[in-house]
Amino acid sequence: MTAVLGTIDLDHANEELGGILLPKAPERKEWSERYSEWFHRVISEVPIYDTRYPVKGTGIWTPFGYKLRRAVIEKIRDMLEEAGHEEVLFPLLIPDYMLGKEGEHVKDFEDEVYWVTRGGKDPLDVKLALRPTSETAIYPMFQLWINAYSDLPLKIFQIVNVFRYETKATKPMIRVREVSTFKEAHTAHASKEDAESQVEKGVEIYSRIFEGMKIPFVKSVRPEWDKFPGAEYTVAFDTILPDNKVLQVGTVHFLGQGFAKAFDIKYMKSDGGYEHVWQTCYGISERAIAALISVHGDDSGLVLPSTFAPVQAVIIPIVYKGKEEEVTNKCKEADCLLKSEGIRSVVDDRKDITPGNKYFTWELRGAPIRIEIGPRDLENSTAVLVRRDTLQKTTIQMQELVEGVHKMLKEIDFSLMERADLWFKSKLTNAEDVEGIKSKLDKVGGIVEAPWCGARGCGEEMEGKLDGRILGTPYKETHDVAGKRCANCGREASTIIRIGRSY
Ligand code: 5CA
Ligand code: ZN
């Protein structure tokens, strides 16, 4: 890091002397070799998320982190609203008799629920759960809201905190006990076909959200033993983190009529009879923000796609004695101009901090573009643009500033996507047998695809042998397995299975 900064300082000095040295892009050594430390360092140094609050599995969004979080939430909200979902807000507390209505659901969540049992000194008549997710809070109201065919489809979402007493090791943003950014969508439909097509739409929406974040993913139908409790099937989005481990960043569930029957949610059909509704739900959390941070970062810190960067362009005055005011004024002028064109810019005109230190700060914070303006630029009516991802410098004419910044933001976004995709593809491998899968998991990590017979017993046996997790089968992709044998048992393969070591 210091070496790179050293280069930049030298570079600028050189440039003032008329010579140009191109700085090298930051490395990704710490990022890949000590990812966990890297992640903790970045979220605490930027800072994004403070983990020092004395309740395990909770954390604090700092002002910068909150802006990043808000940018992500805004994108998600826009996408859902555009697709016809309306935002609501339900209570945090769920009475125990409601939480217990759907058998499988409560069985799986039982060990993860926090309970409120007292109001002041008085024991409560009805124990109240802190929602671990909101099916059992929302669906009793669906029962009241849905009566006729014309009430369907019903598509709502909320962005709330949920509580899960996670027993696996907690990890900031990735596995927390207070999920502070839980977006859950819930839909109800008149027919199975409608609901299943909503699953497809949910998957499409999530695909677009992750594409916007430039986070590569695969979509898998989770095996039966790993689906959401109460669902008929679960489609999960998995990405790969720099330590080669798999992270589930979102899930879309087909609920069938299970909850509708448990909560008696019915509508009247044209023939006067009643039918239970068909339902779906889909969720995403701050885990997706952790993925955004992790997938694009490097050893100098955050690297952010332009849509999500709280600051898209930082303007740094390169001041020399006697020229301070003139240079700073020019920077402020540029800042106004960029802001008026919808670019989130700031001038870092802090005194007594060297430009090198400012570069360091804004590289850490992942500002996509740094704009340097010095006395020479004043003379020539120019500005120097530096890309965060490659540290490449470009000198442009002042009157082309806005256009240049827009163009560079686009180029950065494109490169980030390309780099992330390339890396992800290098971690997506194939194998034909258990030995092969194991060797790929040990050497490459990531996700391995192999032919599979489809039998649950065989799958669970494989998980044991591989110390891995079966992520499931590809969602709506065709893979030719004709003539192939199951990687584990050798019987005829019916599908492809994905395996990884996961969070
Ligand atoms: N009710 C459904 C859909 S909203 C539901 O709760 N699905 S879920 O359990 O799969 O959670 C949705 C997403 O939240 C998961 O895919 C995962 O990315 C994220 N998530 C789950 N538990 C945690 C946790 N403890 N910390 C952070 N994120 C979590
Ligand atoms: Zn098999």
Provide an overview of this structure.
- The chain is α+β, with helices and mostly antiparallel strands.
- It has three domains: 4-24 and 306-408, Anticodon-binding domain (Rossmann fold); 44-296, BirA Bifunctional Protein, domain 2, CATH 3.30.930; 428-500, Translation Initiation Factor IF3 (2-Layer Sandwich).
- The chain has 16 helices and 23 strands.
- It has helices at 2-16, 29-33, 35-45, 63-82, 96-99, 103-109, 135-145, 192-212, 258-262, 287-296, 324-340, 355-364, 375-380, 401-426, 434-443, 456-466; strands at 49-50, 60-61, 86-87, 93-95, 115-119, 122-130, 154-163, 178-189, 218-221, 233-240, 246-256, 266-268, 274-276, 278-284, 313-317, 345-347, 369-373, 382-387, 393-397, 428-430, 447-452, 469-474, 495-500.
- It has an eleven-stranded mixed beta sheet, sandwiched between helices. Strands 16-15-17-18-19 form a five-stranded mixed beta sheet, with helices on both faces. A three-stranded antiparallel beta sheet has the order 4-6-5.
- α1 (2-16) crosses α12.
- The two termini are 29 Å apart.
- The model is unreliable at 1-19 (pLDDT under 50).
- Residues 133, 135, 164, 166, 175-176, 179, 184, 228, 248-251, 253, 281-285, 287 line the site of 5'-O-(N-(L-cysteinyl)-sulfamoyl)adenosine.
